[in-house]
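Pair request: fold both.
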Amino acid sequence: MDIAHYAEMAVLLVNTEDPGRGRDRLTSLDDLRAFLGPQRSLWCNRATAADVEELRAVRARLRVVFEKAAAGDESSAVDQLNTLLTDYPVSPQISGHDDHDWHLHMSDRAPTVASGYAANASMGLAMQMTTVGVNRLGVCQAPPCRDVYIDVSTNRSRRYCSDRCATRANVAAYRARRREQAAAQV
């Protein structure tokens, strides 16, 4: 069982929405199937429109976990995640497929696609939080991006969701400094 993979499921779900730009990549059953992708073909076949709505609600709740953690409100982040863990319990199953050795899946037999995804993502995020710390959950600091991430850097210094956002923020800061220098010389 790859805990980082399950935690990344939470990140991927939250990042299907970009509230800073008013974009949402999870509005239809086709969007859900594209999001689940070929690695989750069993889930794709079982997905329904109700799963879309449930995952959108789970996404909002997971975003709160990241936002509370990024704001330093660890207790609220943990409380929110504990509520998700209660609402979406894990049903572990031993699995062997695709020439892999026996391994553990967290929730292959969940009653719905949304509940299975939510259980996996919540449990993975909880395990990651207890392993690396609540303060490792972040929200990108490059406006208008609001994507979330889990900081696994050795020095706990990550502030952006991606290299692209880090570069964009650094270039904007550089240009602002240059403008200030030019204005000071006039």
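--- second member of the pair ---
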Amino acid sequence: MSNIRLSAVVVAASVLSVLGAWAIPAQDKDAVKVENGLGFAEFRGYEDWTLIAISQNNGKIAAIVGNPAMIDAYRRGAPGDGKPFPDGARMAKIHWTPKTQEAYPGEPTVPGAQHDVDFMVKDSKRFADSGGWGWAAFEVDAAAGGFRPANETDSPPQAHDAKCGFACHTIVQDRDYVFTEYGKR
């Protein structure tokens, strides 16, 4: 191959690479929101929050984590102490499809592909008409390389606004709308 032809191929590959990066940009997850504006940006850093508990339901396994305000409230005895969680308390529930860890004896169940993430934030002024809490549920969107707001076609079906969890959580109104028990250590 001549030097001119090789140079043309290298230039064409470089141009296609740059154009491809522009055509399919990585998702800025902080820009993803549900209706009423609640989104990832308000939960920045949730991946490093303290573990509240683990759970298993609907065929998924989950880790429930909280920001410092949430953890402090749990440690003082919330929700059983009769005091509400403070404004600014945040929690995230990260769901995975379980898989078997074949390399470990007994083949325990461990997290596989992430399925979704759900958020809750206490803001008694902003969410006064939903028990003082705002909710957001986001499904993993593999095609986009990120997340999308959950909707009625998902399993389980989800409303896709900041009140999406209110109807379900009213059965724990006496626990300040929080299901999760803090895993004592």
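Observation on the second member. Confidence is low (pLDDT under 50) at residues 3-24.
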